[in-house]
Amino acid sequence: MVWDIMIVWTFMFLLAGAASVDIKYPEPVCAVEGSTVTLPCSFTPLKSFAQDGKEVQLKILGVRWCVNHLICQGSTPSVFDSTSITTNSRYQYLGDLKGNCTLKIRDIRMIDNTTFRFRMEANYNQGHYTGKSGVRVTVAEVPQMRITSSHDAAQLGQGQTVTLHCTAVHCTSHLLEVTWFKDGHPHPQSGPTLQLGPLTAKDSGNYTCALKTNKKTPSPPYTVCVKEEEEKKDAGVGGKQPLIFGVVFGILLPLLTLILVLFIIIRKRSAAAAVGGEVDERHYDNIDNILRPAEQQGGECQEEAVEDISYVSLQFIRNSSRPVVKEADTVLYSSVANRD
Question: Which pTM was predicted?
């Protein structure tokens, strides 16, 4: 009776242990030759097992990743073995011995075009376990790249956000390492996705992507055209009008002022010249009025007049122009003739 109970408990422990152990692999991965790929993985080890009616605790002592083998045990070649001293630098184990079994593969090659499997090994054989399903890695030599967008490129406006995805036509894995270009120039962002936003007119252009390890095969250009809002265009034109008017007014005002000043100066000079002409004519009229009475009178009165006229003529000869001198000479000649 006691023996039967022990068998039942042992069977229950085995079922419980078998039900709890598990390894979760990612979906099949497409890798480009020369790229770096990460295989996320998690595992749940067996905690204990029953032996002689007792529960025996299990502890994980080592883990490994292998290829081309269903169990990965014994002398099976492994790409990574935590218990081995020699390791391949292309394969890096990012996990631990508790539940993380992530593997990173650098510089993917055609020999990696296979199925990778993870195995855990414990302090007892009952704790050893291999996930037979594994994860399939497909390696593409020179894939054709392409860009897809989260929004229609023809309906992009300022302030929006758009995400561009770079994938391979026959290798749609999101784990590709790519470089982005805008109008043929390297873009500061990198990675399989490129997020743009909030969008401005400067974001417009032709975008391409290529593998970091093979930039000679870029994707066809993807055109991003950011449309300006009509209200902003009108506001921009209206905002420039006061500035234009101010510049024109600032140029015309000094110019008009200069023209007005020159006009006033010219008018003043013309008026001054006209006044000078009238003064000269008045001088000639005064001389003529003095000479005529002297010619009409005779005798002593006439001589006195002549003397007065000569004096007056001498005064004007010093201060007048040459025509006045000629007039005075003529008067003196007439006075001498009368004396004879």
Answer: 0.53
